[in-house]
């Protein structure tokens, strides 16, 4: 269950948010001691923070800056002060989004869910993909086989990542060209063939002959 911390001094709004988000399956707490937000933040350890701008003692920008000293948790500002200056200030202080009051609770919930998906959905997944004794390190773009390691170029890495993710299945040439086209440099069919040929030579040098197989007229596969 994802934890939401609400830093809002209007307790009617805070209670409403807590009830609504609780109905959506979130664990929710709101701040009551505005003198020491950081202590409550660290003890609760939320996955996302909803932060008002105007608060007792110190404003939301201050607490956002303080949180950013110790955490990269997503912070969504909620405020009626929705002019461009405040929005820019919120982003510069480390905020992830700015929602203007009054807001629709369903819109707020959708934004929270989207931010949580982006922030946490891939966490906990390994940075290494293994297939038949070959390790592809997604963190540093290297490939290891037995006691040998090779550094991969950007295109090598992109190709191998797609092939590893679809290991045992044929990956079409179109899918591979799309991955090579991510940086918006045009890649034609011949460019893909050249990249595959170069990659195969690198793999052969560490003992991986025929590791990438061609399925004529369809694409490539690692079995």
TrEMBL record:
SMART domains: REC (SM00448), Trans_reg_C (SM00862). One of its GO terms (biological process) is regulation of DNA-templated transcription. One of its GO terms (cellular component) is cytosol. The modification 4-aspartylphosphate is found at residue 52. InterPro entries: CheY-like_superfamily (IPR011006), OmpR/PhoB-type_DNA-bd (IPR001867), Sig_transdc_resp-reg_C-effctor (IPR016032), Sig_transdc_resp-reg_receiver (IPR001789), WalR-like (IPR039420), WH-like_DNA-bd_sf (IPR036388). It comes from the Bacteria. PROSITE patterns: OMPR_PHOB, RESPONSE_REGULATORY. Residues 3-116 form the Response regulatory domain. Pfam families: Response_reg, Trans_reg_C. Residues 126-223 bind DNA. GO terms for molecular function: phosphorelay response regulator activity; transcription cis-regulatory region binding. Gene3D superfamilies: 3.40.50.2300, Winged helix-like DNA-binding domain superfamily/Winged helix DNA-binding domain. Residues 126-223 form the OmpR/PhoB-type domain. May play the central regulatory role in sporulation. It may be an element of the effector pathway responsible for the activation of sporulation genes in response to nutritional stress. Spo0A may act in concert with spo0H (a sigma factor) to control the expression of some genes that are critical to the sporulation process. It comes from Aminipila terrae. Keywords: DNA-binding, Phosphoprotein, Transcription, Transcription regulation. This is Stage 0 sporulation protein A homolog. Coiled coil: none annotated.
